[in-house]
Write a structure and sequence with these properties.
By secondary structure, this protein is of the alpha/beta class. About 30% of the residues lie in helices and about 15% in strands. It has 60 helices and 56 strands. The strands form 13 sheets. Strands 34, 35, 38, 39, 40, 41, 42, 43, 44, 45, 46 and 47 form a twelve-stranded mixed β-sheet that branches. Strands 32-52-51-53-54-56-55-49 form an eight-stranded mixed β-sheet. Helix 14 runs parallel beside helix 17 (about 460-470) and helix 32 (about 835-850) crosses helix 33.
């Protein structure tokens, strides 16, 4: 038939049944044979064996396709489609009758479904994105376990309505599936279809065809979720969708039945019973579409059933629980009798059907999951290469579970994590030798379990379990069954009904008979444990729905009635009304002292002033700055990496958008931060003054309107590619729901999955100019195996101390979770974490009385009742103190009394956290009602804080706030909680999660007693405790109170009440000492820092309760005489006489601690009986400690003056809030595991993730934040509903997003300030990146008078006129400011008086930093290696398609007579640049560098090759000329030293390198210039020869090269506008142009080949008009020169020179009669580069251990002396010595400018105070006329044969003038003296001979000095 159900039946079985049926019908004519198909249900045994995987009964030939895979397993079973009937429709998605079947098209249409049929979705291979809707008889579909589907098919077409398709082949043809393989229903019917809340048909859960195969897959991927068997997926994925049905759940079935894995339609059982009805839909696993079947199953949890299922929405995803055998009936009145719903955890083996009263039990698969995970431990080891090891046996698992349960205390709840650790440790111990080499055993967190080395057998198990349980006083009860678990469950229900398990918390049911395998389950029957566990299985959405349901249906009314019955004085409301009537018209006397009438300091206007209240100065703290800099360095490292993911150089400005959760308060708070931080001004996004509306543009609340604004943000980023957009996702752990989940729920809640839809959209991921920064205090859910954030891009808040050293000095200390926990430890004076034992006891008692009410409802009503009673007790109804707890009374007292301690009425804030919004509203209404009846409306405010709404504060309090904060605006209202500072108030803070709201410093109590303690997830816990995080002043000693301890510790003893009195109080109202009984260490060891607001008064049951005594404490009202208290002993003033002896005995002198409310209620048991007492307000401790520890010196009259300093705000700065927690959470925090961390740290980190394995080490206390991140990245994976779930599926293992960062830090520590500061410094850095420091110095020596007034008159000429230019005189004077310290060159044009030019700089100014200006880089700048942009990637050689550019090394040799040897240079030529060169054919030898023709006219080509000599600047040299050349084709050669070749090649792989010979490794720039010029002349000759053969004239070859410094960054042109043709009046402006423009302009000059050297001005901002007025000058050129190598053939650079070689060369060129032309209208900007260049030459001693600095005077020494030799070239020593100490050789020349030193054939810098006159000895050279000039010295430097005696005799010298002859060695020195006949006119002495301080092997230079006779 084509429909064989191979997944479950063997063909032999089918044949056998068929055969037997036929045979029976043939033999008998009376018997009606059983239908074959009804026989073909699998029997229970087979079901079990296939499910357990023991010998699979599956036919393996079925394709093992993946979820949703439609491909055939092999091409061999090709399938031929029958041809469709004539004229029918064959369109995909339509049936043959032409009706649309696609789910998207018909989801809203009513579809008629016959009884017994289900709608399912079929997958068509040709329409992979669509489901086709079909109606199928559900008998042919499987149950939840993949079984019991009848073979064959029966279906209808929902399109055309055709019915009765009996074959799936026929049906698949009708609906046009167009299959290429045999049609199988298992393969193509994929999903159930369900109606959602809107009635639309949507894709539901997968149809579970293959039960056994599915289960084995699921076991391997399943992971044990955390916590009190905590919310699994339910809390993560479904939390946000309260009103939506879950796919696959049926609202008509009791929710308990659906969730508990009770399968309402799992095939007909043997007897029909209440649990099964043929009409109800099969309840299957509901998952999210992208998860597929096996992923979602492990997500589900059994969820406790809720009453009246019709009213409660559908529940969470369910889990298939295997059921077999007879059903077990749940008794009808179970909940009523037991007072709690038992929670049954499925263990090993089979679990029976349940029927009957299913609402009263909860079934969960979590223990089963845990067992499965622990079975997979050995597989985890096998991955490490260990040999196969046996997993822990089922018997051992169960035995260890019993052992664990026995150990649990009565108030403890079992934790899956604990059980996992026990299994892990037990297994480790049994395989210790095998695994020791793989992983060291971790420390043992649990008491040692019994040795399980010998395996427990199934026969021994019940006996051993019973033995273990026998020691626990019936807390664990073991039931052994003979046949199946059903009998054990029935037995348990019987015992429960009979009340025989009242002391039993856990029932373990074991059936150990079946084939030596065991069945087991564990029922939690303890009322406390069962309630907590069943509630922990609710998702937040279900929790909210349940509470709402109880409130709406009035179920809570019974609670109110119960409270009324408790109050002996009658109903509280009656009392309140009575009190109200009695006090109407006159306010309670306790509050007559109005806060404004107190004695206090008054300001000028007569308004009281509080000295303690001051607004915090805004500023950036050292920590925030450090974090901002860390963020910046991470962004820079992304930009610096070779991945090219962020090109910082291309951005000009920064913009940002901060995304926050949809909380109005958080929104206003963030807007306020942005507005006041100045970041908008800093980023240049706004101008002064910035309005709040402008700040709001940068903060996005992720609500329904967010999408449009985010789209605008994306559009903005797309339109501004040169702006770097920082997308900040604050509170980033909120809403991590995948957008795929949103697709299911989109109609009902558009905000679901919004973060994923917006921040993870393709546009954000791909935009190169968006950096995403996630900011959170709880990063765990973003640290999974699938996270998008690289671990290298995580920034963690730094720790304040390292090895005891304070890393960042701050005046405030942060108090976070760890500090709160530390405060509970012994030796600390202040337990900041507390729990309220009497409150907990009452909640437990009421929980037993009202089992059907959720504990959140009970807790809220009890706490509100406590607050109401406390308010009444403090207001003058003392009898009510017995109806509240000590802790609540303390809070209320301090709340009401704090405003009276301050002249301005500042008070404290009490935070009351009520997560469930309906309950928060109830609490608000109730407390507001009580407050109104007590006439306290003006004493304190009650504020209901809800995320979606803004703050509402009464007018009276708004007025007070405005007065305190000096706000004039009449419309002002507080919009953030921070603005409530100093306001006495109860803030009822609702919402399931806090959204990052900050609380003011006046927060004194953080009441978290109502947080959902059953949902134990690390993020949730830390998030709640983060509300109390706080900064305290550093000067306040918080750790150990010394002077304060005396009163505190003894007070503690007094306040604990007597045991007999304790026993008399009803259990649920006990007076607070149960905490001491249960955990004495934790409570007694730590006492408070302040008397009234901490444990002292919290132990005292009453303290001051009467209004009268309170009135006296706050000082008498004005106009009333001050009454003095009754006289008592000095130290005990104000107490009743009976108390004094007790106080004296225990205390001695009393030290009153500093305490802001000032009211120090003394511990006093007599107050219980209602005695009144008078008390003195406590004075500040600082004053008391100075009065020898006694308050006797304080007369009462002075007390009133001191009260201003007792404002509660004074304490607020010094002490964090006190936090009240549920007992369960308190225990979780203060108990530590073996690693020393609180137990809460080992919980599942977030509800949206799960552990990868039970096989994981514990977190360690020593772990840094980074290590903790790596731990979570290794051991957690996201659930399918998490937005990162699909991340790894993208193909790459490294799927991190490159531009995504994560900043994590503790709550309220200042992360917002840090990231806003980061934006500022990022903006500054970007501006800095687009700016460079360029030299900005005025030209020097411009004021020297010139004799010639000859000017180049053609002001508008673009190019010089050759004939005119030749007539211009050469200006010898150096004008380049870098030569300010150089010797002046004299010429016949100057008549300089000696005083005209003194020292240009003071000696101490010589090393002063040269003047620079910061300039913005233009688009035509030259760049260093740090610049990356799209355009120049290829130019730089970092193009993604290429590996590092291939280069070839070519030798190039030429001979040079002056050096007397052949010079061999090497070229490194990248493949991409070979077209610039000529190579021999064949052989590929480098022959020459191609040169263009003078006549070439190519606008995209620069003719002159550019040579850039460089050293030490491989990173910083400006060699990227791509933008400077505006993309034009050009030849650029870097000239490098041999030892630097490799590093330059690495950084500039696509540049041509000219490598100097190794002998020049220590040479200066002169050598590079010399070799460039000689090489280029030689190349010119070669090119002339080569091109002459092609018919080109030699003079037509382009003879120019450019020699450019490696620091030339930009080029400018001055545009001159002349008023008239020859007028001297003109205006000019300067603009930036490309080097291409400059070069093409110069290269186009007429007669250009007649110029030897062309240059341009150096840029300066101080350019004067006359400098650019003359378009051309004939003068020195520097830095960027265009050199004619043809004309200068015989003029060489001096290859030995280090400094001034360009001046020297300019003078040689001019003296050779050649033209130097400077284009004055062009200027070059030179960047200041702090490394490399001439700075790379360091002069050091050759003696290695000499650390003495070498000064220039030591650069020379006498020959043969024992002077320290220096490691530096001789030439460098000579030049440096002459620069600083030439006056030693030329004393007459000092400041004697009219008598310069004659320098022959060279220019050496003799320092700024000596002038030189340059003459050339070459014949026919141009020299200045020296007639009439008497020289004060003669310098002969390495003079050649052109210098003769007759030449020197032309010059006249002053008497006493000095001579300095410099030669290579002593021999040539003597020869020179003889040859030049120097001894005729000069006198020499032996001691006048010197040498540079070089060793002989370093070839020192020698010089001889003499005097003119």
């Amino acid at each position: 038939m084509g429909n064989s159900y191979a997944g479950q039946l063997k063909s032999t079985r089918f044949e056998e049944v068929l055969h037997n049926s036929i045979e029976a019908s043939l033999r008998s004519n009376t018997l009606v044979p059983r239908p074959i198909f009804s026989q073909l249900y699998l029997e229970a045994e087979q079901q079990l064996s296939s499910l357990e995987g023991g010998g699979r009964a599956d036919n393996e030939e079925e394709e093992d396709e993946g979820e949703g895979g439609l491909e055939p397993s092999s091409p061999s079973n090709a399938y031929q489609l029958p041809p469709p009937p004539e004229g029918c429709c064959t369109t995909d998605g339509f049936c043959q009758a032409g009706k649309d079947l696609r789910l998207v098209s018909i989801s809203q249409e009513p579809i008629e479904v016959p009884s017994g049929f289900l709608l399912v979705g079929a997958k068509s291979p040709s329409l992979p994105d669509h489901l086709l809707v079909c109606a199928v008889d559900k008998r042919f579909l499987p149950d939840d376990n993949g079984h019991n589907a009848l073979l064959g098919f029966s279906g209808n077409c929902v399109g055309c309505g055709k019915k009765g398709f009996c074959y799936f082949t026929e049906f698949s043809n009708h609906i046009n599936l167009k299959l290429s393989t045999q049609p199988k229903k298992q393969k193509h019917l994929k999903y159930y279809l369900v109606r959602n809340a809107q009635g639309a048909l949507t894709k539901g859960p997968l149809i579970c065809w293959k039960g056994s195969e599915f289960r084995s897959r699921q076991n391997s991927t399943n992971t044990c979720p955390s916590s009190l068997f905590p919310p699994l997926e339910s809390s993560g994925s479904l939390a946000a969708f309260p009103s939506d049905p879950v796919p696959g759940t049926n609202p008509n079935i009791p929710v308990g039945a659906q969730q508990a894995g009770i399968l309402p339609n799992s095939g007909p059982p043997k007897k029909r019973h209440k649990g099964w009805s043929p009409e109800s839909k099969s309840t299957t696993d509901g998952g999210f579409p992208q998860g597929g079947g096996n992923r979602t199953k492990q997500e589900g949890t059994g969820v406790p059933c809720v009453p009246q299922p019709g009213l409660v929405g559908p529940a969470s995803v369910t889990f298939p629980v295997v059921a077999s055998g007879e059903p077990v009936s749940v008794p009808d009145n179970l909940l009523k009798i037991c007072k709690a719903k038992p929670v049954i955890f499925k263990g090993h083996g089979n679990f029976p059907y349940l029927c009957g009263n299913l609402n009263d039990v909860v079934i969960s698969p979590l223990l089963y999951t845990c067992y499965q995970n622990s079975q997979s431990l050995s597989r985890a080891y096998e991955q490490h290469g260990a040999s196969t090891m046996q997993p822990i046996s089922e018997e051992t698992q169960l035995f260890l579970t019993v052992y664990y349960l026995v150990q649990l205390a009565a108030d403890q709840v079992p934790l899956m994590e604990d059980l996992e650790q026990i299994f892990l440790r037990s297994w480790r111990e049994s395989h210790l030798t095998e695994i020791r080499q793989y992983q060291q055993a971790p420390p043992q967190p649990f008491p040692p379990a019994p040795n399980t080395a010998a395996p427990v057998t199934s026969a021994q198990l019940p006996w051993l379990a019973g033995l273990a349980a026998s020691s626990c006083n019936d807390s664990v009860h073991v039931i052994e069954c003979t046949y199946s678990l059903a009998e054990g469950l029935s037995e348990m229900f019987r015992l429960l009904i009979e009340g025989k398990l009242s002391k039993t918390n856990y029932v373990v049911i074991i059936c150990a008979c079946r084939n030596a395998a065991i069945d087991s389950c564990i029922a939690v029957t303890g009322k406390y444990q069962a309630r907590i566990l069943s509630e922990s299985l609710l998702s937040p959405a279900e929790y909210q729905r349940e509470v709402h349901y109880e409130l709406v249906t009035g179920k809570v009314d019974s609670l109110g009635a119960f409270f009324s019955s408790l109050c002996p004085e009658g109903d509280i409301d009656i009392l309140l009304d009575k009190f109200h009537q009695e006090n109407q018209g006159h306010v309670s006397s306790s509050f007559t002292a109005s806060s404004t009438k107190k004695t206090a300091a008054l300001d000028a206007s007569g308004v009281p002033v509080c000295t303690s209240y001051r607004l915090e100065p805004r500023g950036i703290r050292p920590f925030q700055l450090a974090v901002a800099q860390k963020l910046l360095s991470h962004v820079c490292s992304i930009a610096d990496s070779s991945t090219q993911n962020l090109d910082l150089g291309s951005f000009e400005k920064v913009d940002f958008l901060i995304c926050i959760p949809p909380s109005e308060v958080t929104y206003q708070q963030t807007v306020f931060h942005v507005w006041h931080s100045g970041v908008l001004l800093e980023l240049g996004l706004e101008k002064e003054p910035v309005t709040k509306q402008r700040a709001e543009q940068h903060v996005l609340k992720l609500d329904t309107e967010a999408q449009a604004r985010f789209k605008a943000f994306l559009q903005n980023s797309f339109q501004n590619p040169h702006t770097l957009f920082v997308l900040i996702h604050d509170h980033a752990h909120w809403d991590l729901v995948s957008s795929a989940v949103h697709n299911i729920y989109s109609q009902s809640d558009p905000s679901v999955g919004l973060v994923d839809r917006l921040l993870n959209c393709r546009e954000v991921k791909e935009a190169p100019n968006i950096v995403t920064l996630h900011v959170t205090s709880f990063p765990y859910a973003l640290q999974t195996q699938h996270t998008l954030i690289s671990p290298y891009n995580e920034i963690h808040w730094p720790v304040s101390y390292s090895n005891g050293v304070d890393l960042y000095h701050e005046n405030k200390k942060y108090f976070g979770l760890s500090e709160f926990i530390d405060s509970t430890l012994s030796g600390h004076s202040l337990p900041l974490l507390r729990y309220d034992s009497s409150f907990e006891a009452m909640v437990t008692a009421l929980g037993k009385r009202f089992p059907r009410l959720h504990s959140a409802v009970i807790r809220t009503f009890v706490l509100v009742q406590h607050y109401a009673a406390a308010m009444m007790a403090v207001s003058g109804l003392p009898q009510m103190k017995n109806h509240t707890s000590v802790e609540t009374l303390e809070i209320t007292q301090n709340l009401l009394n704090s405003p009276k301690q301050c002249p301005c009425g500042h008070g404290l804030m009490v935070l009351l956290r009520v997560p469930c919004s309906p309950l928060a509203a109830v609490a608000y209404e109730r407390l507001a009602h009580v407050r109104a009846r007590l006439a306290l409306e003006e004493h304190f405010e009650i504020i209901l804080g809800h995320p979606s709404s803004s703050i509402t504060v009464g007018k009276h309090f708004v007025k007070q706030l405005k007065m305190w904060q000096k706000i004039e605006d009449a419309e002002w209202r507080p919009q953030t909680y921070l603005e409530l500072e100093g306001l006495p108030c109860i803030l009822i803070f609702s919402g399931m999660d806090p959204h990052g709201e900050s609380l003011p410093r006046s927060l004194r109590y953080c009441d978290l007693r109502l947080i959902n303690s059953s949902c134990l997830v690390r993020t949730a816990l830390e998030q709640e405790l983060g509300l109390a995080a706080y900064f305290v002043s550093n000067d306040a000693p918080l750790e150990k109170g010394a002077k304060i301890e005396v009163l505190e510790s003894d007070g503690e003893k007094l306040s604990s009440t007597d045991e007999d009195e304790e026993a008399g109080v009803e259990g649920c109202f006990d007076a607070g000492s149960t905490s001491e009984k249960r955990s004495p260490v934790k409570r007694e060891r730590s006492h408070s820092h302040d008397s009234a607001s901490s444990s002292l008064s919290s132990k005292a049951s009453g303290s001051v309760l009467y209004g009268e005594s309170l009135a006296q404490l706050s000082g008498p009202p004005q106009g009333e005489p001050a009454r003095s208290p009754p006289p008592c002993g000095p130290a005990e003033e104000g107490r009743t006489p009976g108390e004094i002896p007790r106080l004296r005995v225990s205390q001695g002198p009393m030290v009153v601690s500093r305490h802001s409310p000032g009211l120090a209620p003394q511990p006093d048991s007599s107050l219980r009986t209602g005695q009144r007492s008078l008390q003195v307000p406590a004075a500040p401790s600082s004053q008391l400690s100075s009065s020898s520890g006694s308050s006797s010196a304080m007369p009462t009259a002075n007390v009133l003056v001191l009260q201003a300093s007792q404002c509660s705000m004074a304490k607020a700065c010094r002490q964090p809030p006190i936090v009240f927690l549920p007992k369960l959470v308190y225990d979780m925090l203060v108990s530590t595991d073996s690693s020393g961390l609180p137990k809460s740290a080992s919980l599942l980190p977030s509800p949206s993730v799960m552990w990868t394995s039970s096989f994981r080490p514990l977190l360690s206390k020593m772990m840094t934040s980074t290590e903790q991140s790596l731990y979570y990245r290794q051991w957690t994976v996201p659930r399918p509903s998490h937005m990162d779930y699909g991340n790894r599926a993208e193909g790459r293992v490294d799927s991190f997003h490159p531009r995504r960062l994560l900043l994590s830090g503790p709550p309220q520590i200042g992360k917002t300030g840090a990231y806003l500061q980061f934006l500022s410094i990022l903006s500054r850095m970007l501006i800095r990146l687009t700016e460079v420091d360029v030299y900005d110095e005025e030209e020097i020596n411009t004021s020297l008078p010139e004799e010639s007034d000859w000017h180049y008159l053609q002001l508008t000429d673009p190019w010089p006129d050759l004939e005119l230019f030749k007539k211009m005189p050469f200006d010898y004077i150096i004008h380049d400011p870098k030569y300010e310290d150089a010797s002046l060159i004299c010429s016949h044009h100057q008549s300089i008086k000696s005083e005209d030019r003194g020292t240009s700089r003071k000696p101490e100014d010589l090393y002063v930093r040269r003047q620079t200006a910061r300039m913005r880089l233009s688009k035509y700048a030259a760049y260093n290696t740090y610049h990356h942009c799209e355009q120049c990637h290829q130019y730089m050689g970092f193009h993604p398609h290429y590996q590092l550019y291939e280069s070839t090394l070519h030798a190039f040799a030429f001979s040079y007579s002056m050096l007397g040897e052949e010079i061999q240079l090497h070229f490194i030529i990248p493949k991409s640049k070979e077209h610039h060169f000529v190579f021999s054919q064949p052989g590929g030898q480098l022959e020459s560098m191609r040169l263009p023709l003078v006549t070439d006219k190519n606008h995209e080509h620069i003719k002159s090759p550019t040579f850039t000599p460089t050293t030490g600047r491989h990173e910083h040299g400006l060699f990227n000329l791509y933008h400077a050349m505006d993309g034009a084709n050009h030849l650029h050669v870097l000239v490098v030293k041999e030892y630097e070749m490799a590093i330059y090649k690495k950084y500039w792989p696509n540049h041509i390198m000219l490598v100097l010979p190794s002998i020049f490794n220590s040479a200066g720039v002169g050598a590079a210039h010399f070799l460039i010029k000689e090489l280029c002349y030689h190349n010119l000759e070669l090119e002339r020869n080569r091109q002459e053969e092609l018919g080109v004239k030699p003079q037509d070859i382009w003879p120019f090269i450019v020699i450019s410094d490696d620091s030339c960054v930009m080029w400018n042109v001055a545009d001159v506008d002349c008023a008239g043709e020859r007028s001297r009046e003109f205006s000019w402006s300067e603009r930036n142009v490309s080097l291409k423009y400059v070069m093409q302009h110069i290269e186009a000059s007429p007669n250009i080949t007649h110029y030897a050297l062309i240059g341009m001005r150096k840029w300066t901002s101080k350019t004067r008009g006359h400098e650019v007025q003359e378009p051309f000058s004939r003068c020195h050129v520097h830095d960027f020169i265009i050199l004619n190598v043809d004309l200068t053939q015989n003029v060489q650079y001096n290859q030995n020179r280090f400094t001034c070689d360009d001046v020297d060369f300019n003078l040689r060129v001019h003296s050779a009669g050649l033209l130097l032309c400077r284009f004055n209208r062009f200027s070059v900007m030179k960047k200041q580069i702090a490394v490399g260049g001439h700075r790379s030459f360091h002069i050091t001693s050759k003696v290695s251990d000499s650390s003495v600095a070498i000064v220039p005077s030591q650069y020379i020494c006498a020959p043969d002396s024992k002077h320290t030799f220096l490691a530096a070239p001789a030439q460098l020593l000579l030049e440096k010595f002459l620069q600083y100490h030439s006056h030693r050789f030329f004393p007459l020349s000092l400041k004697n400018h009219s008598h310069p030193v004659l320098s022959v054939d060279c220019y050496l810098n003799l320092g700024p105070q000596i002038s030189v006159c340059y003459v050339s000895s070459r014949p026919h050279s141009l020299n200045i006329s020296c007639s009439g000039v008497a020289f004060s010295g003669l310098l002969l430097y390495l003079c050649d044969s052109f210098v003769g005696a007759s030449f020197l005799k032309k010059f006249h010298f002053l008497k006493g003038a000095t001579l300095c002859v410099i030669c290579q060695d002593r021999n040539s020195l003597r020869q020179t003296v003889v040859r030049l006949e120097l001894e005729d006119e000069w006198q020499f002495r032996l001691r006048d001979e010197f040498q540079t301080a070089n060793a002989k092997e370093d070839r020192p230079l020698f010089f001889l000095t003499g005097r003119h006779i």
